[in-house]
Amino acid sequence: MLRKFLSCLLVVCVMGAVTALVFVNISGTSNDNFITNFYFSEVEGTYRWTMYGVCQQVDNGAIQCSSPSPAYPYSPAENFSFNNIPEEFRSQRNTYYYLLRIAYGFFLVGLLFSVLSLIVVILPGCSMGHRTGLPATTMLFMTFLFATVAATLDTVAHMKGVRVFTNAGFRANIGRNMFICMWTGAGLMFVAACALGIRNRLHQTKMMHPRMANV
């Protein structure tokens, strides 16, 4: 019974992580009202940074995003033409620029590993036992690693950026939906890895002690 519960928990967590990472990776690719709710940070309630560009609120209240550009940098001094951008964005331009560039690549790799994880865990027997459980364990660990590093880099860059904007008198905030997706995806992969480890341990115990077959 416990092993069945852990199996269900494993699949649900991986599916949830895949969904969360998909939302992160498609932000800024469309002007759809739902997708535009996913952004890393916002300034003056008008400009939003996403994975693939900057989105801006227009006169009718709709959100319009720039043409999708892979690894779009978080560089306000270059993203905008107005002159009152806080000086820190110029003096520390490379810090923000490369944090987001690296995070972009890590999110893509994390999404790839999450999809592979889902395929592996739903195949009968692929995640059971020591040897057969190795692919699933590897995929889960790699997804957790890449998603966590990417989420950390984005969090550092945008929290720092929001603080700089706020100190300069701008209204700025992080994108709640995006941060929930980033960290939920990483957290679900951690839970999935724990569930897989416990389930495999129970499976090994069953093989050594057949009387525990009902566990």
Strand content: 5-15%
Flag low-confidence runs: none
Number of helices: 6
Q: Give the assembly state of these chains.
A: single chain
Order of helices and strands: HEEEEHHHHEH
Report how far apart the termini are.
6 Å
Q: Features of this protein?
A:
single chain, 215 residues, alpha+beta, Butyryl-CoA Dehydrogenase, subunit A, domain 3, five-stranded antiparallel β-sheet, 6 helices, 7% strand, elongated, Neuro_actylchol_rec, signal, transmembrane
Would you give an account of this structure?
With 215 residues, the protein is α+β, with helices and mostly antiparallel strands. It is built from 6 helices and 5 strands; from the N terminus they run H-E-E-E-E-H-H-H-H-E-H. A 5-stranded antiparallel sheet has the order 4-3-2-1-5. The chain crosses the membrane at residues 102-126, 138-157, 177-198. Keywords: Membrane, Signal, Transmembrane, Transmembrane helix. InterPro entries: Neuro_actylchol_rec, SUR7/Rim9-like_fungi. This is SUR7/PalI family protein.
